[in-house]
Design a protein that fits this description.
Elements (H helix, E strand, L loop, with lengths): L6 H8 L3 H8 L7 H14 L5 H8 L4 E6 L5 H16 L3 E6 L4 H13 L4 E4 L10 H6 L4 E4 L9 E5 L1 H14 L4 E7 L4 H16 L5 E7 L3 H14 L5 E4 L2 H13 L9 E3 L16 E3 L2 H17 L7 E4 L2 E3 L2 H4 L3
Parallel strand pairs: 1-2, 1-3, 3-4, 4-5, 5-11, 6-7, 6-8, 8-9
Antiparallel strand pairs: 10-12
Length: about 325
């Protein structure tokens, strides 16, 4: 078995002190650039690999952050992961990604696993809008936790989200101004804060629109399968509203496919708006109108909240809400 190369050996090869070599390998900017270059060249020549476990035990830091999402198969969560990884990379931290796979039990296990891996903090998109176990509350007592996109009422954690009330109302107002008087809403059961907020905002907007506006709802999940099922029910029942508002782009994409297969034209027969701002929404014909979240801004806010809570764990709960943007495309206004 090949013996592990040590920092002392790297220092000797670079003709610097072990302390200088250690700082250079850690990326410390106080090291003279010429010396740092020599150290890095010696590292590469010798094949030195840092012992992260030893460093973590010495510094009580691993420079890693756990990220738990409900499903990596959902393209929206992939966009979230990309923004978070870029933001944490800017401050020298790596993410350890976990997929709860739509299961509360898996989410609890992932929390325990990340705790065992000694991550410096946790970013989680929780499955439900209520605490379902003590796991999240317990880990929040030992490390910084930021809830991303979905809120759960837990003490000692911070929340970064998007203003779903604003996003839904902007969508409804756009459709009303386009002359729509009948609506269908296709979304998830209100078992997460985002699903609940979007549904509540839609209902409020409908009630405020006056007696001449009719609407119906189809509630299931944030999935293409449910979007397809709901659209097929609309077609089968012979009810084609003026507008369909979907609580996720993956739903809207499936709805568009069913409508096209049923020879119902978008936007001539029915206008269609999605939600989440996926890049996929811009490659279909017609291109989908959607509500886009400022994910990069939200990710940078997450990094800031996590780092400040690491420095001061006794901070009160903090919330950062960002305003989404309605992107109007052909699916709700016709050809440009």
């Amino acid at each position: 078995m090949t013996k592990r190369i040590t920092v002392v050996q790297v220092a000797e090869a670079a003709n610097v002190s072990p302390a200088t070599a250690s700082r250079a390998l850690a990326g410390n900017s106080s090291v003279d650039p010429a010396l740092a270059k020599r150290v890095l060249e010696a590292r590469d020549q010798l094949g030195y690999r840092a012992n992260f476990l030893a460093r973590a035990l010495r510094t009580s830091r691993t420079d890693t952050v756990g990220v738990i999402v409900p499903s990596v198969s959902n393209p929206y969560f992939l966009s979230v992961i990309e923004s978070l990884e870029l933001a944490f990379d800017e401050v020298g931290r790596s993410i350890i990604l976990c997929d709860s796979q739509g299961s509360i039990e898996n989410e609890t296990r992932r929390i325990h696993t990340l705790r065992q891996h000694m991550v410096d903090g946790l970013v989680i998109i929780p499955m439900r809008n209520r605490p379902h176990s003590d796991a999240l509350e317990n880990i929040a007592r030992t490390m910084p936790v930021v809830l991303f996109d979905r809120f759960v009422p837990i003490g000692g954690v911070d929340f970064v989200g998007s203003d779903d009330d604003y996003g839904v109302r902007e969508s409804v107002n756009h459709l009303l101004q386009s002359g729509c008087t009948s609506f269908a809403y296709i979304g998830s059961q209100p078992d997460s804060s985002t699903a609940e907020a979007r549904l509540v905002a839609f209902r409020a907007a409908m009630l405020e629109s006056g007696e001449g506006v009719r609407f119906c709802e189809f509630l299931g999940g944030f999935s293409a399968d449910f979007g397809r099922e709901a659209a097929q029910r609309l077609v089968r029942d012979g009810y084609v509203p003026d507008a369909i508002l979907c609580a996720a782009d993956v739903i809207a994409i499936a709805v568009l496919d069913v409508l096209r297969g049923s020879h119902i034209a978008v936007p001539d027969d029915v206008k269609l708006v999605g939600y989440d701002g996926l890049w996929l929404s811009s490659i279909f014909s017609p291109r989908l109108s959607t509500v886009e979240h400022p994910l990069d801004q939200m990710a940078h806010a997450t990094v800031g909240l996590l780092r400040s809570r690491q420095e001061n764990p006794l901070l009160e709960n903090r919330t950062r809400i960002f305003q989404p943007r309605l992107i109007i495309r052909e699916s709700s206004r016709g050809s440009e």
